[in-house]
Structure to design on (494 residues):
């Protein structure tokens, strides 16, 4: 098997279960997005160097609607990775492996609630604060 | 296969254990970080608020632990993704992991002390 | 009489195509029955592996609509169709994924059995025992489900990691390692743990649990591998702290 075929199979969801292979693939993809964001975030923090001269402009940019929308998307990615990840920590220690489908959907529900709450808070700040 | 392994090559369970431990840390760190940054309006992300926080040693310790955890968790995750693709050069991959992780942590901590 | 269309991936890795066959179906007709019907009545060049026809030998596993199943124990009327053609249900049959493909529905199991052998799937004793080795029903219950494995290889075909990483030991071999580690008569636990804690051993499992979904015998390799990870971690920590390579006292 070449690396190309391996990568194709790695991305495949054919015949996989939502609480199984698809959840696994999403976990990896969201993980990679968060890792990428970590470096973007470090770059953004570099704006704070030199007394933060460039930070003010930066803050105005990231407080615009398209950036806040991206933020909300990022929350979704983080909440998915977190909720599914908590399940996996338990599973990898051998807890709840026999009921992993139920466990998955319970964690998804909790993650969704968290995401909606945070989105609500951010959206009201944005609309209210102007 | 495994019969020829030396002790140094069997750090995989340590890596696994740390992955799970940093995962649990991150629930706390990221939870606090997200609430702090987004639930208080703009108050907490204005430059003065950030500088005040970073001059508090407790917050500094919090962020240092956060940087180390997230870098380890993220890059070890990436290492796992690459290993899952059937990569044979495990030693080279592990070395690359350590180099990138140490550079990232040093830069992150340097930022915390220089902002 | 009802009919169904089998859409079968035929040929060799160099040259292949999907070929469709119409198969009559009665209540209880299995996919394997359908394959025998094709070979007896339509095309006797069709290659597939099968033997016992009763979910014991583990020969006839293949991809049924993208998911691995032992075809002898999969009844056509219970399979969700891959689509329809002129109102007739279509079932797609392909060789097991994640294995080197030989021809038609036949794959190469050499690597699968080599990996299985590498975890030492037999009882290891330090000395030859005198008389019988007794075991209580409670001790048996700890691993009994795992003894039901028929080595059909469906778990490996379902596993996303086995499909992208041919070096990974795979769910079948790892479950076999746990089966013998959990056996009260066995004394070779550390020898097996030294094999499975390889970077290409149990650490490549990230619990997508597709293996347990695929297993026709409900062996649940996914749960066994997680327990094996904890055993392997304890073993490796002992190795690191005592400096002993074999982990023995």
């Amino acid at each position: 098997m070449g690396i190309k075929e391996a990568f194709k199979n790695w991305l495949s969801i054919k015949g996989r279960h939502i609480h199984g292979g698809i959840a696994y693939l999403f976990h990896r993809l969201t993980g990679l997005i968060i890792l990428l964001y970590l470096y973007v975030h470090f770059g953004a923090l570099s704006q704070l160097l030199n007394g933060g001269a460039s930070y003010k402009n930066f803050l105005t940019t990231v407080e615009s609607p398209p950036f806040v929308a991206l933020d909300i998307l990022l929350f979704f990615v983080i909440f998915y990775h977190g909720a599914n990840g908590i399940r996996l920590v338990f599973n990898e220690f051998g807890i709840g492996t026999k009921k992993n489908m139920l466990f998955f959907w319970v964690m998804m529900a909790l993650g969704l609630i968290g995401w909606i709450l945070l989105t609500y808070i951010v959206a009201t700040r944005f609309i209210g604060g102007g | 296969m495994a019969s020829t392994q030396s002790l140094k090559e069997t750090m995989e369970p340590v890596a696994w254990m740390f992955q799970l431990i940093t995962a649990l840390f991150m629930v706390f760190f990221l939870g606090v970080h997200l609430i702090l940054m987004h639930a208080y309006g703009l108050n907490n992300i204005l430059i003065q608020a950030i500088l005040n926080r970073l001059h508090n040693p407790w917050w500094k310790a919090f962020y240092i632990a956060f940087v180390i955890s997230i870098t380890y968790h993220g890059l070890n995750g990436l290492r796992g993704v690459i290993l899952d693709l059937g990569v044979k050069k495990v030693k080279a991959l592990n070395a690359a992991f350590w180099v990138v992780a140490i550079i990232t942590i040093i830069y992150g901590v340097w930022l915390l002390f220089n902002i | 009489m009802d009919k169904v269309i089998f859409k079968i991936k035929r040929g060799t890795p160099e040259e292949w195509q999907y070929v469709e066959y119409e198969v009559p179906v009665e209540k209880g007709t299995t996919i394997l029955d359908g394959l025998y019907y094709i070979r007896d009545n339509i095309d006797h060049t069709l290659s597939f592996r099968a033997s016992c026809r009763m979910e014991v030998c583990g020969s006839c596993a293949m991809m049924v609509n993208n998911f691995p199943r032992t075809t002898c124990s999969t009844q056509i009327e219970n399979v969700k169709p891959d689509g329809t053609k002129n109102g007739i249900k279509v079932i797609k049959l392909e060789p097991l994924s994640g294995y080197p493909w030989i021809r038609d529905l036949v794959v190469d199991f050499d690597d699968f059995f080599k990996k299985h052998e590498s975890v030492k799937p037999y009882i290891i004793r330090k000395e030859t025992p005198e008389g019988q080795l007794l075991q209580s029903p409670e001790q048996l219950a700890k691993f009994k489900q795992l003894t039901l494995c028929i080595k059909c290889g469906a778990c490996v075909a379902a596993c996303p990691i086995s499909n992208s990483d041919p070096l990974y030991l795979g769910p079948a071999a790892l479950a076999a390692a746990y089966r013998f580690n959990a056996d009260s008569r066995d004394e070779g636990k550390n020898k097996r743990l030294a094999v499975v804690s390889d970077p290409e051993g149990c650490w490549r499992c990230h619990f997508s649990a597709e293996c347990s979904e695929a297993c026709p015998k409900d062996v649940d390799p996914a749960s066994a591998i997680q327990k094996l990870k904890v055993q392997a971690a304890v073993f490796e920590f002992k190795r690191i702290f005592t400096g002993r390579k074999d982990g023995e006292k």
About this structure: The first strand of chain C starts at residue 2 and ends at 11. Chain C touches chain B at residues 118, 161, 164-168, 194-201, 203-204, 206, 229, 232-233, 236-237, 239-240, 243, 245 (CB under 8 Å). The CA atoms of residues 15 and 207 of chain C lie 35 Å apart.
